[in-house]
Amino acid sequence: MTTRINIDPVTRIEGHLRVDVEVDGGIVQKAWASCTMWRGIENILLGRDPREAWLFTQRFCGVCTTVHAMASVRAVEDALRLPIPPNAQFIRNLILINHALHDHIVHFYQLSALDWVDILTIPRANPKAAASLAESLSDWTNNSDKELAAAQDKVKGLAASGQLGMFASGYWGHPAMHLPPEVNLIAFSHYLQALEYQRKALQVVGVLGGKTPHIQNLAVGGVMNAINLDSQAAMNMDRLYSIKSLMDEVIPFVQQVYFNDACAIAALYPEWMTYGGGVHNYLAIPDLPLDAQASAFDLPGGVIMNGNLSSVKTFYTAADTEFRHAVTEDLTHAWYKGDAPQHPWQGETQPQYTDFQENGKYSWVKAPRYDGSPMQVGPLSQILIGYAQGHPLTKKWTDLALAKISAIGKRKVTVNDLQSTMGRHVARAIRCAMLSELAAKHWDYLVTNISRGDAATYNPPKFPDGEIEGVGTHEAPRGTLSHWVVVRDGRLSNYQAVVPTTWNASPRDERGQPGPYEMSLLGNPIADPEKPLEVLRTVHSFDPCMACACHTYDPDGKPIASVKVL
Amino acid sequence: MIPRILIAGVGNVLLQDDGFGPHAIDRLHAEYEIGEDIELLDLGTPGLDFVDYLVGRDVLIILDALSSGGEPGEIFTFDRQQLNERMPNMRLSAHQPCLQETLFTAETGGVCPKDVLLVGIVGANFEVTTQLSASMEAAMPRALETVADTLRRHGAPLRRRNKPLPLKSWWQEPAVEHAEPIR
Description:
heterodimer, A: alpha+beta, 4-stranded antiparallel sheet, B: 183 residues, alpha/beta, 4 helices
C-alpha cells in the first residue's frame, strides 16, 4: 500500500521547503521538493550601480550574507577583467574561511546533530564512562567527567522543569535513534561548547569585515581595509594578532572535536552510509585564490559524472570557460514563465504561480543544469573532486576520516561510501578541518605580503560604454554559488544568482530528471510515517538554506511545519 | 564593554514591510541620542548567529515585522513568556530563522538576556521593494515611542535630538560615494 507524506511549512510568508514523499513497504519510492517562497529578489538590482550590488545581495539571506556579497563583487570584477591586489585576496579569503568554519560548526551541532542524538537518553548516561570514551577518541582537553556531568545536569534540569523548549519537538525515542547514552552525552556537551567556538570564528569576520552580520569592507576592485603597520587606527600587527589568537582557539576545536564527532557518529550509524546518495553528478568551483589574477587556488574544483571518480574533470579558474557555457536554468516545473532552459545571462524571473502540480509546475526553485544534467553541490562534491584529483590536503583529511570511521565501526569504509546521507556530514567535517589548516596558512600569506611593504588593497574600477557580462563564483559552505551580471553603460541590466540550494533543491526538468533532494530520498526507510525522521536526516544532510530572504515573526503561533499522512 | 541593552532590528529591507526592524533602527539612530549602555543593531535576517549578539546583555528589544495577528499597522508586544508559548514544532530547513529557537539556544548556552521584548507592527505588503507601506510608515512613530517607554522602565531614557540626523538607509540612496576605509 502506498502512503503519501507531505511535510509542509505553513507560515504565510516565510514558506520555505515542502517535501512530499510516497512510501511503499516502508521505503520512499517517489519524492518532490518544492520551495514555497518566491525568490525573484534579483529584480531589485536592475538599473542600479554595479559597485553597490553587493550591499543588496548580502541581504538575500541572513545566514549567507558574506557569500552573496563576495560572489557579487567577483561577478562585476569578472565582467571588467579587473584583478585585485594580493592583500585583498587574502583578506577576502580569511573572511570566507572563518565564515565557513562558523557555518559548518553551527550546521553540525546546532542544526542537525539532534537528528542523530537522542537528548532524552542523556540522564541515563554514565559521565565517567563517557569521559573515558571521549578521551579514547580525541586529545581535546574539555572532555572531563566533570564537564560531561555538567552537560548532563543541564538536560536533567530542562527535563525536570518541563521546559524543554525546542528540544520538546524532537523525535526522541524514535526507532532510528540508536546511539549509546554516553555518546549522546558527549555530543550534547560539544553542542554547548560549539556555541562558544563558532562565535570566535565569526568575530574574525567582524574584525576584518568591519561588522557582522553584514560586512562593510568590500568594494568592486578589492577591499576597503586600510593597512598601515605604524597606525593605531588601521590594520596593524595588533589587529592581525587578535585575529590569529581567535583562530588559534577555533582550529583545535574543529580538528579535535567536530572532526572526531562526525567520524564517530558516522561509524555508529553505518546504515546511513548505504542510502541517501541521490544525484551522483558533482560540481565544485575552485576557491581561495592565491594571487591577484586568481590563477591558483587552495580549494579544488571540477566535475564528476555518475559517481565515477576516475572521470573527474578539473577547473583551473574560478569561472572556467566550460562552466560559463554549461550552466542553464530550466523552468518547466518552476513557477516562472517559460519552459525552455535559459542561460543565466539571458535568464528571466517572471512569476507564474499554478498551485502544486505534481506533473506540472510545483516549486519556486528553478532547475539549474550543467550540460543538461542535475548536479549535487556542497562539501561532498568538493571532497570527492579533490580526492579524485589527488589534491594533497583533501586526501590527507579524507584518508584520516575513513581510517577513523573504519576503526570505530570495525568495518572498512571507502571513499565511495561517502556518496550517502551520512557521507555529506563526514565530507563537511573533512572540509572544515581543511579550512582550519588554511586559516593559519592564509593569515601567514597576508602577514608576509604586508611585511614586504605592500599595503595595496584596492584597484578602482572603470566601466566601459556598451554591454559587458561577468560571472562571480564562490564555493560557499553549501556549495557552488554563482552570480551572473550583465552591465550596460555602467548600470546593471540583468542579475541572476544561482545559489547552492537551487542546485540541490531543484525540481524536475524538461526531461523529467529529478533534483538531488528528490533523488536522495528514494530508498530511504521510513519507520513511522507520522514521524518522518529519516526524511529530515537526508534533507538536513545537504544543509538546506531556503530562508534566502524573509523574516517575519508569526504571532499566531502556528507550527512551522506540519506532517500530513495522506 | 558590551552595552547592556541591545535593540535589534530584524527583517529584510528588500521585501518592503519585512524591513520594519532595520528601518526602525535607522530612525532611532536619527531621532534620538543613544546612551552608552544601549547598542542599536540592524541584524537583517539572522539565523542562529543572532545568539552571538546576545552575549553580555541584560535587556533585549527586538523590532520585527508581524505577519499576522491583527490589522496592518497594528502594534503588538511580546515578552519572553509569550514568545516561549509559541514554540514551533519542527524545523525543515536547517537555517529557518526562528526567534524562539534563537532565544532557547541562548538560554541553553547561558547567554540569554533577562528581559526580552519584541515590538512588532503587522505588515501590509511584503513585495520586492525597499519602500515601507503607508500603514507601516504611519505606525512607525508609535512603535518608536513604545521602545522609548521600555527603555525608560529600564533606567535608560532616550533624549530626542533637537534636529534629527539624516537617515543612513543605504537601500534608498546610492551607497558608493559614502564608502570609507574600514579601520
